[in-house]
Amino acid sequence: MTHMLRTTPSTLMPNDRRGFLTLFGGAAALALAPLREAWALDANQASVLISTALGEVYQVINSGQPPARMYRDFESIFVRYADVDVIARSALGPAARQADAGALAAYTQAFQGYIGRKYGKRFREFIGSRIEVTGARPLKSFYAVTSVAYLNGRAPMEVEWHVSNKSGRDRFFNIIIEGVNMLASERAEIAAMLTTRRGDLAGLTADLQAAG
Amino acid sequence: MRPLSLAAPLALFLALAGCASKPVMQDGIRVNDPFEAQNRRVHAFNKAVDQRVIGPVARLAGDGNDGAGPGTMDLVINAGANLSLPGKVANSLLQGRPEPAIKNFFRFAVNSTLGIGGLLDPAGTDFGLPEHDTDFGETLAVWGVPEGAYLELPVLGPSTQRDAAGKVVDLVIDPLYHLLHRDAAWAAFGLRAASKAGDRARFGDTVDSVLQDSADSYAQLRLIYLMHRRHELNEGGTDIDPYAADDAIDPYAE
């Protein structure tokens, strides 16, 4: 958010030299635009992605809608800001390799609804809370956006978001709350659910539609 | 307190014996659980206790709080947590970390006096002295003792050999119990146990969702405990890169 606030005054300033630089910069950015997709996710963009997603989450939390409606809204935010395909595949583990495209798509669809409900159900804990994005740093092939969650009656919690542009768009693919990794936790959960169904993906998909 | 002084070396031995077993990678983290069968039996027991006793009692205590000002539960949690501070000061010193020791010492001094025997928390709200959590399990980690095998303890829940040893030693070295008269020491112990139960009520939804809603609550609890504890002790996070070639699944590499 902060970088948006910073650029606005410079474009309004009646300073020729700065105007020229802004234009030049703009032209350079346009010329480089095709390259951007490939390698230009930076710390600031990663932070902005998370702040924006959080802003939408809090809008839903404060909307006072019925819970079922909220869960659908959370799911839609998840779909727009997270790399759902990669999260769903990673949670499914090796079974994702053998699955055919249709079954995998149905599973992914069920998975995103399950995530929307499972994490959405916790919305009451976030009423009156705030999450501050504190920074971002490169990590492995992606960015880690750090934030602090201030929840009522609890000590502040560290929440880290892992953001990548490998899907072709900037998306987060993992949330780590005080060391507890959502992707690892969902891998364990989906693996256990798949075992209950003796490895049957269609069965798991049916169970996911009811779970969360 | 005398039987406990025998338990400490025993627990330490247990912690050290744990290094022999082989950890495996599971769901993206290192898991060392050679006692899984036994642990799962304890887990089933703990889950039943939580469902029938701790959960309902905690909910009852939680419902009694109307949300305006600190409720009875908060007072109990505060007082119990306050009594745990001298032990934390001792552990920080044993870890060679004077700063958290000094902060927790002043926190104890402020809350025991201005906070009416620890019922209130002016140190945290007005003096910027939040609790710095630590225990002898962390001290052992600082001293280089390995984590050992995963354990689920009856009633106390998830632990490791190192942390279980730490819990026993914490009872023995706690300065509070050495200063207090025996009955007072038991009262302090009871208050601290009640404080832990209060925490269970406060985080009731979180505990319920893990214990009751997971397909395999044993594996889920083990995973959460190990990840959180390693994070607390700075023993390496779990940075899963689902895009990397060395990960089991890389959809973009295919």
Features:
heterodimer; A: 212 residues; alpha+beta; globular; disordered N terminus; B: 254 residues; mainly alpha; two-stranded antiparallel sheet; two-stranded antiparallel ribbon; 12 helices; 62% helix; disordered C terminus
Tally of DSSP helical segments of chain A: 9
Parts with pLDDT < 50 across at least 5 consecutive residues of chain B: 246-254
Question: What's the Cα radius of gyration of chain A?
Answer: 20 Å
Counting DSSP H or I runs of 4 or more residues, the number of helices of chain B is: 12
How would you portray this structure in words?
The complex is a heterodimer of chains A (212) and B (254). With 212 residues, chain A is α+β, with helices and mostly antiparallel strands. Chain A is built from nine helices and five strands; from the N terminus they run αααααααβββββαα. Chain A has a five-stranded antiparallel beta sheet. In chain A, strand 4 and strand 5 (180-181) form a beta hairpin. Mean pLDDT of chain A is 84; it is low at 1-23 and 26-38. Chain B is 62% helix and 6% strand. In chain B, the strands form two sheets. Chain B has a two-stranded antiparallel sheet with strand order 1-2. Chain B has a two-stranded antiparallel sheet with strand order 3-4. The longest helix of chain B has 28 residues, at 36-63. Chain B is globular, with a radius of gyration of 20 Å. Residues 246-254 of chain B have low confidence and may be disordered.
